[in-house]
Amino acid sequence: xxxxxxxxxxxxxxxxxxxxxxxxxxxxxxxxxxxxxxxxxxxxxxxxxxxxxxxxxxxxxxxxxxxxxxxxxxxxxxxxxxxxxxxxxxxxxxxxxxxxxxxxxxxxxxxxxxxxxxxxxxxxxxxxxxxxxxxxxxxxxxxxxxxxxxxxxxxxxxxxxxxxxxxxxxxxxxxxxxxxxxxxxxxxxxxxxxxxxxxxxxxxxxxxxxxxxxxxxxxxxxxxxxxxxxxxxxxxxxxxxxxxxxxxxxxxxxxxxxxxxxxxxxxxxxxxxxxxxxxxxxxxxxxxxxxxxxxxxxxxxxxxxxxxxxxxxxxxxxxxxxxxxxxxxxxxxxxxxxxxxxxxxxxxxxxxxxxxxxxxxxxxxxxxxxxxxxxxxxxxxxxxxxxxxxxxxxxxxxxxxxxxxxxxxxxxxx
Length: 414
What we know:
By secondary structure, this protein is α+β, with helices and mostly antiparallel strands. It has 11 helices and 22 strands.
């Protein structure tokens, strides 16, 4: 540790993830003397896994609908100060050339998350931030106008404290919820934490038959019988449930509903380009043209072969029944199953498999203009530790950059 004999700082940032590194850089650029305390042996470990190792670090499409939490509007004043344009300019300044791909997704031109981490670490060094790794914090307390940090490596103190310890997603990368006791100790409330952007589990036994199917579809989430939201995209069916971006996008809502004891199911539309009437008309056309053909034989051009026997059973049709034997009601039931196969949701994979964590520090207790606590002067928060999470597509990292920059900017004005 290069700061063993120098433990007094203007600003100490706790947590060297994406938000913590950005907060430390921002504070140092304001002229503050900054230390970054991290309990892992390196900074930005979770960052290395983002975007399948390619680091989708922001998205051109920005808006309130891209962020979630008890009060998603909390993000707006933050993004106004450090949004998309500021993010792109910052990364170009530190040597990361942004490359835009389909859908407005931005990646480093190298296609490597490691280069983003390296550039941030180099920027920390450039601004003389003391990066202290392997630091085990026992407690953080405020006395008068100073914060005191009792660690296994000694004592630290600062005039401002920025907590950027993340949530509980991906424990192996350091995001293990270890910052929560410090937060609660300051009198803050932490909303319920659930995995977000995670695979969901289903009850139906037929899922084992469908494992491995990838289908462009629309997934609709129903909570207590009412459609809550819908997400298009490539859905992946697994032996335990649902994966892929549509499942990830709705997972946080499903898990909060399950936690509240509500009934949750997903309905999968395997023919999103056709309305129910259009699909029924197609099936009846096939019935007139190929009446003696088994029903299942007219579907392979529309559906994955492995889906067909499951859909026939769910529509209560015998496997070998011919089109000519199907009543109008049979055709309608089959079309309904194709347009809305029901999967009852009963859970998800764990935090370790989640890409993000929903829940965190109650935003009503924070000032969105500065990221400062309304309860403790000089205490700031940034990133996933706050009750804000983003949709797939670079939004969780955009929140990390934006909230980190704002917290560091205001916390660094000593």
